Amino acid sequence: MTDMGIWQRLLTTQDSLKRRLLFIGWLTAELKTHGIEPILVGGNALEFYTLGAYATVDIDLVCTHPEQIDRLLQGEGFQQEGRHWYRPDIDIAVEIPATSLAGSYQRVETVMVEEFVVYVIGKEDLIVDRLNACVHWRSEEDCRWVKELILLYQQELDWEYLRERTRAEATFEKLKELRQEIEELSDDGL
After folding, report:
1. Beta-carbon count within 10 A of 66 CB
2. What is the tally of structural domains in the chain?
């Protein structure tokens, strides 16, 4: 691929998930020069792991030094709107909801998006995040996404880690319940 510059590439990339991942990859490359590695979390991580089945519009990143992102985004024409940085021409909104990861840094996955590296919260920690919303916020939508993630990745999930984390978060019983629902569906041949 000829290098037309990141901004031109973002303008011409029609697939919104790919556009956001390219942007995160570029942002990560820029921040690495300062020793900072942002991690994709939230809805965009869910969209990535569900292969686009979940759709979101903003990028949530965990970053130890959000002020570095603020300076970089401001310098690249983003405008701050509340908690989000937004640039309408490329339709990208960024939020830094936390400075530390709620989960294990050892489980963060490294993904290549063209020539860029993107760090994504681990699957198990994303499941724990969605289970918290499912149980503590009574979000049926998040319960559904937990089941979807389990269906997609059940063979590669670290179930011992999930048991430990969900016990600590008071969501273990819901994890068992959702897993049982999945097994019952499988037993019915679905």
Report:
1. 17
2. 2
CA distance 83 to 160: 36
Hey, how many other C-beta atoms are within 10 angstroms of the C-beta on 3? 8
User: What gap in Å lies between CA 19 and CA 22, rounded to an integer?
Assistant: 5
- Residue 173 token pair: 């019983």
Tell me the pLDDT tens digit for each residue of 28-83. 999 999 999 999 999 999 999 999 999 998 999 999 999 999 999 999 999 999 99
Same domain (yes/no): 134, 114: no
Residue 143 included in any domain: yes
